[in-house]
Design a protein that fits this description.
Order of helices and strands: HEEHHEH
Structural class: mainly alpha
Largest sheet: 3 strands, mixed
Number of helices: 4
Helix content: 25-40%
Shape: globular
Distance between the termini: 37 Å
Strand content: 5-15%
Length: 142
């Protein structure tokens, strides 16, 4: 019984530390990237819906610029449940089509940001930010 309690105690202490180190690095252009993209200077995006989606209205007088997101299809269909993962419940959101993202955005993004050093720079850790490019909270949907 003492051994069981010892093992359970160690697992309880080590458990959060093990989960904290489980971040996955995902860059724009990789198949698992979902999150905000900066469309400035890119071809007009193909959208899933022609109008932006807003879940939570903002106070009168507050203006929120729309953002463009690539999200898994299940997140689009149930946006109210998933908008908090992207910090976008109170933002007008345009969802970009995967085909536009893969065929138009990714090749141009890589071309602009590779600088001869691979496929871009910066990492995505869980829901982190890639500094300096206007992208928001990318993550994998595993």
């Amino acid at each position: 019984m003492k051994r069981f309690l010892f093992v359970a105690g160690v697992a309880a202490i080590a458990g959060p530390a093990l989960v904290a180190d489980a971040g996955v690095s995902v860059q724009i252009g990789e198949p698992g990237f979902y999150g905000r993209i900066d469309i400035g200077g890119f071809p007009q995006p193909q959208l899933i819906y022609p109008q932006p989606v807003v879940i939570q209205r903002v106070p009168v007088g507050v203006v929120r610029e729309p953002i463009y997101l690539r999200v898994p299809p299940g997140h689009v269909k149930n946006w109210r449940k998933h908008c908090h993962k992207y910090n976008a419940c109170d933002r007008p959101v345009y969802f970009v089509q995967d085909s536009w993202y893969n065929q138009e955005y990714v090749p141009r993004y890589r071309e602009r940001h590779s600088g001869g050093h691979g496929q871009g720079h910066g990492n995505r850790q869980g829901h982190g930010h890639e500094k300096g490019h206007g992208e928001g909270q990318g993550h994998r949907d595993d």
